[in-house]
Design goal:
single chain; 95 residues; alpha/beta; 3-stranded parallel beta sheet; 3 strands
Length: 95
C-alpha cells in the first residue's frame, strides 16, 4: 500500500486559531518545516464548504440566484494554507 503522507485536517476553526495566534509563525514552523526544525506535515485534508468545525454555517451559493462565491476562504483559510505551503512546497492538499 502506498503512503500519501502524514498530516491532519485544516478546518476553518483550526485555520482561525493559527491565523489569530500571536505565535502563528512558530506554530506554522513547528507543523510544516521538515525535521529537525518541525514535524514536517506533508498532507492536509480540507473541507469543501462548511463542516462541523466551521465558525458558522455557510455555503458557496447561498441562494439559487447568487453566484458561486469562495471569498470567505480568502480571509483566514487560504492565507494559512499559503504559509504552510511556503514552508513545505511538497505539501499535498486533499479535499
Amino acid at each position: 500500500q502506498r503512503l500519501l503522507g502524514f498530516g491532519g485536517s485544516m478546518t476553518e476553526s483550526s485555520a482561525q486559531l493559527i491565523h489569530c495566534s500571536p505565535d502563528r509563525e512558530r506554530i506554522l514552523d513547528a507543523l510544516f518545516l521538515p525535521p529537525p526544525a518541525g514535524v514536517g506535515m506533508s498532507c492536509l485534508r480540507l473541507c469543501v464548504g462548511a463542516s462541523d468545525f466551521a465558525t458558522e454555517y455557510y455555503n458557496y451559493q447561498p441562494t439559487p440566484d447568487s453566484c458561486f462565491d469562495m471569498s470567505r476562504e480568502n480571509a483566514v483559510l487560504l492565507p494559512v494554507l499559503r504559509s504552510a505551503k511556503a514552508r513545505n512546497p511538497a505539501l499535498t492538499l486533499v479535499a
